[in-house]
Amino acid sequence: MLQLKNTPFHERTSALCQPQNWRKWAGYFVVGSYEHTIDREYWAIRNSAALIDVTPLMKYIIKGPDAARLLDRVTTRNIQKMSVGQVYYTGWCDDEGKMIDDGTVARLDETTFRLTAAEPNLRWLTMNAVGLDVQFEDQTDRVASLSLQGPSSRSVLKRVCESDLEGLKYFRLMKNKLGGAEVTISRTGYTGDLGYEIWMDAKDAIKVWDALMEAGQDYGITPVGILALDMARVEAGLFMLDVDYTSAGHAWIESQKSSPFELGLDWTVALDKPGYFVGRKALEREKKEGSAWKLVGIEIDWVGMEKLYAEVGMPPQIPGTAIRASMPILVGNVQVGYASTASWSPLLKKYIALAHLQKPYYELGTDVRMEITVEHQRKHAPAKVVKLPFYEPEWKKK
Amino acid sequence: MNSYDTIIIGAGHNGLVAAAYLAKKGKKVLVLERRDIVGGQVVTESFGDGFSVDSLHAGGTLRPDIIKDLKLASFGLGVDSIRKPFISLQADSDPLILDADPAKAAESIKRFSEKDAAAWPDFIAFMEKTSVFIHAANETIMPRLPRNFSITEGYGLAELGLDLRLMGGTDMMRIIRGIPMTADEFVDEWFESDVVKAAVASLGIHGLTLGVFGAGTGYALMHNWANRGGLSHLSVEGGIGKISEALAGAAKSFGGEIHTNAEVKQILIKDMRATGVVLSNGEEIAASNVISAADPKHTFLSLVGAMELPPEFVWNVQSIKMRGSVAKVHLLTDGKHGIPEGTVALAPSIKYLEKAYDAAKYHGISENPYLEVTTSGEVVSIHFQFAAYKLKDGDWKSEGAKVEKIAIDTLAEYFPNLKSSILNKKTLTPLDLEQTYGLTEGDLNHGQLMLDQFMFMRPIPGWSNHKTPIDNLYLCGSGVHGGGGVSGASGRNVVKVLK
Questions:
Q1: What residue of A is the nearest CA neighbor of B272?
Q2: Domain boundary residue among B228, B251, B281?
Q3: Which of B90, B408, B451, B471 measures 20 to 30 Å from A134, CA to CA?
Q4: pLDDT digits (tens, 9 = 90+) for B111-126
Q5: Which domain holds residue B246?
């Protein structure tokens, strides 16, 4: 029988999870929400400090003299340029330039990297390593990880970390000691807020959890499930594999695949790096010819929503969590794309969505209409293409 | 630095055919050969005083249009006009002698089966039709299926389909059915005598690591028949090396250059485009195009390097089945070996052939091998199957002696004077084929002639039109469609693809 695994924090998270709202994530049980409504968890991300168990994220150690060459070949970033202690966000493609997965690459030392991924990628990595002196280790089970996100996250960490992390810049990492355990702390996250990810040996998981919870008490530290995280990541304009795009490895048909340009990752595609990397020819071609699609943010017009609901005598109805469903987007009466995740933003007080739009409708400021269902009837709410991210606090990178 | 329009890696017959055609078109061509002689597998070499042999192939003919286009006769190429018989040795009776003249062959067959003797002329007529089809197929540059399938690329294949259709319904179906068949099934539809069946079926496994019960050996039978132009070898006057010498002479006469002792170590690549080569002495030579006549595995994994290639392409190249299992034993005798002229096969029964193959299956050496023996005066050349490239026990540094002993002992049972006539010996193991002749895993065909590696799947699916993921790098060896045999089709076709 295929059994879902519990993360090393299960002893703590299961005791706190009131609604038994468990979600499946990459073969693990994780908490969807700790409370019956997710408001407090959402606001912890934006106002104080949210503690999120992100252990199921795939973690690969790539080690050896050719580790940098391998990652330079596999990912679209210029890994040779990376300094030790730096973290890159990157996608990786098949040779047709279509995204397989995305994650972060951290350079732990000159010849050791950690790659995170949403899905298993060991075979793909191995296939790319022919003739290279490089070893792989899947550390997903062995290394536990916590994400501490929110404006107070630094203050909490400073109380409990042995070495000062004041100088730890955005997308950098450091070794540290926390609650008696050796940890690696990277200034990364999936919320678009100030935040850190803490990596530790699975056996130290409870120690680190307890130390953080204790240190964060005065700051209102709150264990947060992945439903609130899902809302925050939409505000941050961050997409998710299998929700907002389909891996080229799993797509049934060509049109399900997306290139990094189509996902708005232009800045991660280092076409100036030398030599071959996987997908290069196709990406060069797309760069020259332009992309057929773009992932953009759209803001649904509230007054327009009100009008549609007024017809049936109701105020606008918005679900309390991010909606992972495909919603057609039209210009005039022609469909020009679809939204893949939509969410109410409690902070912005706006109904927002990540949307895939066809050329030329993905240009900023384009007026579109998104399909919504008002009392079982299809309606089209006016919306506008806006810049991503929807929300970016000044303290994110400070 | 010297710069060429085209550099060709390897002076085998395909490389030389390509070189000659390109030079004839006025291109500046350089052929680089790692050995000190040209010819690749198509060589006549001396292994001692009076011990001159056709090292790997006892015969072969380039396609007539190539001989004509390149005026090879004027460069000393002559083909023996009389095809000698195919002689199948029998333990308990006189051998079956299949003369090139169907009527004469039928006489010999009669001793084994009246029915088979009657069927023989029809069989020969059918095989001649299959040869027309195989040659037409080899002339067709295969579309890149399943990718990039377009009307333009598919046109050649459609034309080939038409050729096949025009043969008439019965023959078309028989050829199509024959492709996936086992050699055993193929001959079973024509003959009742095991002796006759085995003699013909042996051609379906010649040079392959498959037994006569292996699917697709029906295709290999047709393929080898077409390349030989019959069941027996057609030898070349003065040795098969004359083919290569004539090709080299033609290429040079058109202004082509050929450098021997010039081993290519690396294909230079810049921005996913081939720009030249590096020799093992470090010398760099630039070229607008590079054509590799080396096998696809060596070309991509050693000369290009996996880092320059898409991962799935690398995986496909790694998956090409090479697995050679042919050894050659050459004997210099005092002339009293007693072996008749012609292509003498030890292929007495279907089961014998299949059992010989068992050894290769289990990474060993056949104790009772399938042999094909040719003589040229005092020299006896034995083609030995099966001797697996990858041995379960021992290695090829020592096991060559075992192959030699088995070959001589086996043959001496039919020719008692053989042993006492031997003056000198030279054995070529699968490892020698790799190290001396540059054939990965000792595979004569640059990749087994199997159904999943033929036509538009040769060398790998999606890359069957001589092109590669590296711009300006092309393939033209036996590992590409048209290859496998001495026809020169692959070398001819690459020139059509090259811009």
A1: A276
A2: B228
A3: B471
A4: 999 999 999 999 999 9
A5: 3-43+63-77+237-320+447-497
